[in-house]
Amino acid sequence: MKAAFEEEPEYKTLVSRIEEISVVLGKRPRLMIAKLGQDGHDRGAKVIASAFGDFGFEVVAGPLFQTPQEAADMTLATKVHVIGASSLAAGHKTRLPQLVQALRAKGAENIIVVCGGRGVTPGLSVPDGLWCLGPEPQCSMPREQSSTC
Fold first, then answer.
1. In sequence order, which ranges of 6-135 are alpha helices (DSSP H)?
2. Inter-residue contact 84 to 48 (CB < 8 Å)
3. Considering the entire predicted model, what is its pTM?
4. Which of 14, 105, 106, 112 is the most exposed place for a label (fewest CB within 10 A)?
5. Looking at residue 137, what is its pLDDT?
6. What span, in angstroms and rounded, lies between the C-alpha atoms of 103 and 74?
7. Which run of H or of E encompasses 5?
8. For position 29, what pLDDT does the model report?
9. CA pair distance 118, 143, nearest whole angstrom
């Protein structure tokens, strides 16, 4: 991916911003890819992990079939800043709120939780109240226009 996009202005901006964050943190930001529940399809998660590595993140790949509690434990053990949950089997409707609650119970409300996958339709399939369970999402749209960005 890096070779295909390295001259694109958006890619350069993203990489530059990740480098700035790295300076502030004193290390590269860490992202964990989580596959929660019974979703055993991991190809998309591997592609996303590779892309985030190209952007400048240090990527930790979680195992398939994690429970939300296991993902929360791994998040703390690996000291990640962001969890990217991949869902193709609608696990985001129940597992993501459970993950956020598990993080909250461990005092890790500062961990950013994001979700993507073929089974996730922005504005339609994200459970009501998900974002109010976790940290305020970073979003370019006013919150009243989108609760799922």
1. 9-25, 43-55, 68-78, 95-105, 130-133
2. yes
3. 0.71
4. 105
5. 40
6. 11
7. helix 2-5
8. 94
9. 24
